[in-house]
Structure formats: structure tokens, C-alpha cells
Amino acid sequence: MNLACFSRTRFSDNPLETRDDLRRFLVGLLDPLAPHTSPGGARVHIGHTGTHYDEAAAQLEGFSRPIWGLAALLAGGGQYNGTERWVRGFASGTDPSHEEFWGCMRDKDQRMVECSAIGFAIAVAKEQLWDPLPAKAKEHFERWLGGMSDKQMPNTNWLWFRVFANLGLSKAGSSFFDPTRMKADLDHLDTFYIGDGWSRDGPEGVVQLDYYSSSFAIQYAQLVYSKMAQDIDPARCEEFRNRARMFARDFVHYFDSEGRAITFGRSLTYRFAMSSFWGALAFADVELPAPLTWGVIKGLQLRNIRWWARQPGAYNGDGTLTIGYCYPNLNMTENYNSPGSPYWCCKSFIALALPESHPFWVATEEPFPAALSGVVKVLKHPLHIATNLGGHTYVLSSGQQCSYPVKQSAAKYGKLAYSSAFGYSVPVGSLTLEELGGDSTIALSDDDGETWRCRRVTCEARFETSVDGHTTWLRSMWFPWPDAAVETWLVPPQKSSPLWHLRIHRIRSERVLRSAEGGWAIYGQREDGRALEPVNGMATGTYESGGVTRAVSLAGVSGIAALGDFASARLGKALRTDANTNLMVPRAVLPTLIGKHTRKGLDEWLFTAVFGLPNGGKDTVGAAVGWDLREVEREWDRRPRIPEEILNLSQAC
Known about the structure:
Elements: H1 19-30, H2 55-64, H3 67-75, H4 83-93, H5 111-124, H6 126-129, H7 135-145, H8 159-171, H9 179-189, E1 193-195, E2 198-199, H10 218-228, H11 234-251, H12 276-283, H13 294-309, H14 359-362, E3 376-379, E4 384-387, E5 394-397, H15 409-413, E6 417-419, H16 433-436, E7 442-445, E8 459-465, E9 472-481, E10 484-491, E11 500-509, E12 513-518, E13 522-523, E14 541-545, E15 548-553, E16 556-563, E17 571-576, E18 588-597, E19 604-614, H17 629-637, H18 644-652
Antiparallel strand pairs: 1-2, 3-4, 4-5, 5-6, 7-12, 8-9, 9-10, 10-11, 11-19, 12-18, 13-18, 14-15, 15-16, 16-19, 17-18
Helix pairs in contact: 2-5, 3-5, 4-7, 5-8, 8-9, 10-11, 10-12, 12-13
């Protein structure tokens, strides 16, 4: 349920339980593109916002990305009445003499990205998308697609796009297929692999393991390749399937029981592409690791798609996709997001390529595995600690960062925690806390609150385990200024206090600082649509008392409390953030602790407990995850225990 808006979408009546339901959903996304398609079919123009690349490439993006779904549908024996638009577009877009020509590729050209979907389409649906082309059009097509073979590419997941282009050319029997280049690209991509199924999105030194390392690009591409290239590269294909088996055991922890995925990293406007890995597992016929079954995989995939089908803000009035997450939001986008970018989500239709008889479709959908519920899981490679204890799915995070400039990268990678229920927030300005969107972060100011800095580059991130072996936490450093250092410990929830996690910060600075530490940003309206108001007790509204504050709404409960000897030095405030900071709700409230730190050159320790209970859109607080109101009140009063090792360290300083 999207608490930002109670209206229905055009897909609300589709149960999205069967193969035919998924087909109808795809058709419902493809049909609205027809009025936005150019006469020659090669360009799809949905809106007027800009990107760092040219308009022709942006309109190519609108053309190509829906092909992920269309090609899967056709490969599985399905039909679509609008297929001719794309066949015509292939001919027009690759013809240098045509007014809709996409343009020749240059080094690091955005057009290369779109070759991924195009190569996939030719590889899996050659009969429907390649064979109908006249000989001259085929010549233009293969020359254009093969034109990226000798071009320079970013040293990232982009190399997969050239692999897919060559894979398509190979299936078409084209002389432009370059097996030497494809092998070189695959060999280099294998250097990104770091173990246990995980790959970096780049060479050694890059610490970026987000959805690009899974559903958006690398894992997905490996799985498709393992199915399509079995006859020419069997050893590598088997290695890719082995990686997927290992990776699945970690990746499952990024999804909750309702189908939502944890909001983390960039390109989240791709929406349900986040779950495309599960469909790709089925496409590649991977032998599943326990406790995953085809019923579980089917549930993970379809619940995520169902959740997105019911988010009204994800769609324009004509059925095209908006730029944003749960509602239109340009603040959270990257400079490479065009109006056609969100259609990367069509990767999640890959299960349509499977016959009705495939175990994925034959299996009865199963809920999230009980064996993986109520757990805390250390995820070594992405430097995350995942948990769904108490019914809240989130990760504690320290150590990831973008290796190149990305808008709002501090919010996308540098926050202390990321949730599936309470999406992260991004700044909409640079001056006030309301503009900052400082959820799940500690923000510092050296100019009495005029401007604020948040963690972007994290240093010395590592896991540590308590002496008794019962608790593992994340420890890291960041330096907001050359003469200021913040060391942070992130401690996951404990079974004795499952709705709380701990943050401990040691601040040493040569300047006077103000701090603002945010909990989870939460839907900030009452049931009647008016803003939350102050209340006493665990009722809908906001609560502030000394170093404690919380907000309760239809979305659940979010709270934050200062602990320790100096708890009274920080003031709890239920901050109403500026509109459109949060990814999931346009009007949010952020429980925040505000303090002042004047001990220049000396250590100051901040002990913080953060409370979060999602509601899943139910009418009663906690109902979605099995809590009643009295239990929630008891859990609120049950503060977590600070690990003895960290407490002793603070007392020794």
C-alpha cells in the first residue's frame, strides 16, 4: 500500500499470480508507449526532462528498455500486437539515411547501454524481431550493433552490454560477431568477482555492491549468458550458475515478506528490476540452494511485482512510468535518468520466456521462508548486516561509496541503515535540517546549523564480534573536515529488544559542532490526511520528551532515543522534512536527536537507540508483522544493551 496516495492504479485488479497475469501486466506497460512512439518506430519520447547524454540516445532508451519484457514474452511463445513497432524501429534507427537514425556509437556512449536489451532480444526472439527485417535493414542493424566492438567503455558493468550485443549478433549468424572481443570482455568482468557469489561494479578498489551487482546488471547478465552460451562456453556458464546459487543465499535478505526490496544505492527508479534476479534464476534453470524452492522464488518475484503494480505514483495518468520511486521525484534521480529509464524494470518479465510447464510456473507460490525470518545475517562482501528481526527488514551499512560522481551519493551509499519499509531520503537543499533529509545518518554542522555534512566516504569499515561471540557489529570512520573524525559502531537488534538497533559514535573535533541524528523517516500524515500532531502514548502522532522522540502513523512506528550518561544533552525533535525528500512518501516526519559539542580536541561519545516497526498499510500499529499495541508499548520501553566491549572503551577514554 502506498500511504502517499489511496487511489488505485490501472493494474490494481490484476492479481499477478499466473503467467497470464504477468503477460497482461506487461501488455499494460507496453500499450501506453504507442502514442509516444515516432512514425518510424525508432524513438519513444515520454517526457521533456534532460540527461547528461543527447536526446537521440534518451529516446533510444525509451525504445530499447521495454524490449527486455517484449523479447521474453515472444521467446516464451507469446504474442503482442504492437511487436511491429519495434521491428520497424530496428530498421529505422540503424539506417544512417533515416531521420530517426540513432547515431553511430562513440567511446563511452549511452547507446552502448541500450545494446544490452537489443542483443538480448535478438538472442532469445530472433524469429520475431530479426527474421522479419529485409536484407538491407539487417545489414544496417548488424553494422550499427557491431559498431561498439572497438570503442572504449567504462570499466564497470557496462562491459556486459557489449557481451550481450555480441551474443545477439552470434545468434543472428552475423559476420560482425566478435568472439575475441566477447571473451576478452568476459575475462575482464571475471576480475570483478570477489567471492561467495558477489562481484564489485568495477575493478579492485571499487567498493560498490548495490543492485547493479545483482538484478540490474551483473548477476542477471551472468544468468542469461549461462543459458544462452552453454554450447560455446560451458565451463564459464557453470561457474556463473554456481555464483548465483551462493549469491541467492545472501540476496534473499534484501526482500521482506510483503515483497518490498531494501532501498539502497543508485538507479532505484528502475523499481521492480530489483527482483529480476529471481526470474533470471528460473530462466537459467539453476539448481536452487535450500531453503529456496521454486515456490519461494516465485513468491519473491511476484510479490515484488505486485507491490509495484499497486503504487499509484509510479505511473502517469496514461499508464507510462514516472521518474521516481513510489511517486514522481527528480531529487532522487541520477543525471542519466531519462523518461525512458524506468523501463529497465522490464527485466523482471524474463519469467515469461519460460513455458507453463517450467517448475517456476508449476510451483505453488510460497511465503518468505520461515527459516530466514527473525534473523540477523552478516553480509561480508557488501559490508552490510541484514536483519528482519521483529518484522522489520533492513541493513546496517558502512563502507560502500561511489567511485565516481553520482548525485546524492551520500544518501544512496553513506547512510547508517537502509530499510525496505521506510525508504531513504535525499536532500532537496543545502541549508536547513528540513531540506537535508537526514534519516539514518548523523549530520554535523560547524556553522551553528547553517549547513550540514553527512557521511559520504567511509574509512576503515570492518566487522567486529563480541568476546562471547553472540553479537557482530560494523565499525568505521569518516572525516567531515580534516580536523574532525567520527568513529561509528552499528549494532544490530538483539532478541531481547528486536525493534531497536544501536549506533555509537565517538566524535573528536577541533571545532565546535552541532549534530543531528535521524531515525527512520516515516509517513507523516494522520488517517484523515492532515499532518501528524503531538500526542502522549503510543497513538497516531508525534511525541517528544527530552532525548526521546517518535512518530506513529499508518506506516508504523519510528523512534530514536539518546542513551548513556549524556543523553540529556541531546534534544529529541519530530522533524517534518521538506516535501519530496523521502523516496517512498512525499510528506515525512523524521524523529531526530539534536545536540551541541563544544569539547574541542576531546572525545565525545553518543549512544543512540533507533526504533522501527513497519505497518505494511494495516489499520492497527504493528498488525502487519504480528504485534499488538500493548506489545509495541512494551518493546518501546525495552532499550537495547550496549555491548560491554564498546562501553568499556568509552569509559577508558
